[in-house]
Amino acid sequence: MKEYSSDRTLKFTESVIREMTRICLKHQGVNLAQGFPDFPAPMEIKEAAIKAIRADFNQYAITWGAVKLRQAIADKFAWYNGVPIDPEKEITVCCGSTEAMISSLLAIVNSGEEVIVFEPFYENYGPDTILCGAKPRFITLHEPDWYFDEKELAQAFNNKTKAIIINNPNNPTGKVFSREELQFIADLCLKWGVLALTDEIYEHILYEGAKHISLASLPGMRDQTITINSISKTYSLTGWRVGWAIASAHLTASIRKVHDFLTVGAPHPLQEAAVTALRIDQSYYQTLAKQYQERRNFFLHVLEDVGFRVYRPDGAYYIMTDVGHLGFPDDVAFAFYLVEKIGVATVPGSSFYSVPSLGATKIRFCFPKKMETLQQAAEKLKKLKTAGKK
Ligand SMILES: Cc1ncc(COP(=O)(O)O)c(C=O)c1O
Q: Whose CA is nearest to atom 13 of ligand 1?
């Protein structure tokens, strides 16, 4: 049969994370695979969306984002991240950080150029690099605390390197990059003229005093960084699809062109409501982090109790685990066993690695769930204690 699919689509598979959600629905399990909350978003933000629709913000917004939203993004980036920006020229509002990342990569990368990615990585970055024709270079984040080898990173930079992707706080590991680590990366970017794309969507989900530092705030990095973010995780609004890329005016001009022809714009009434989100009382962020810390502590205990080896996250809302000692053939077999027989959906570790065998003993849990959902999952997981090993 003639192959109609493009060569580029043959180089990657469907998202395993989203597939696990569909399998979970089939088995009516508890979904701890895909990272989205099962608790309500803040009422005042929802009311703002209803008001925006009633006020007829129902046609296209300005392609690169509603004026009020760009102003709110700039204000928040100044107070939280410490970087003043021009909302007229340095922000592109996109359909989630997912679109912000791919639009940015398409805007800067030429076919064959290299993009450095820390591994394990958020699943999307694999296809993202393929779609923009980049050659990914993976740098290992080493267990147990997910450090990177400075020498290995330094050696990865060369004349073909166009960009480095940093997800901080990190999914799936929960790593929060320290100032020293970021400075080391910044120095290499400055030395080689390499752009940094930083996905900071978990910037407010931090534990035990961990601090979020934006790479763009380090000396010299403001104009060499594309900072990507969205309302998805901070305000529990993953379905709204409102995100953005912050970059120098020159880079923003390119990002806006790609964004315009990919999606035209993010949903206008939800952009209007996102202004309310970004201007929410600052105490909201402390409460958010505190509630996630309670969930994290509870679920770490649950997992350890039933026999998982856990990696304690310092940020984001995932727990990476090692299950090599549990006797299953690999991570995929174990993930299917968990969803089909135990009733808990997870993500097999291999989906976060360039070579599946690297993640063959890992399973990722997410915990942005009501305590009662986590308790249900805990009850189900207890069956692991009595079930025979595979
Ligand atoms: C690191 C990371 N980046 C981006 C996304 C997707 O974000 P958005 O909903 O803004 O597209 C996720 C979702 O899980 C994520 O974990």
A: 35
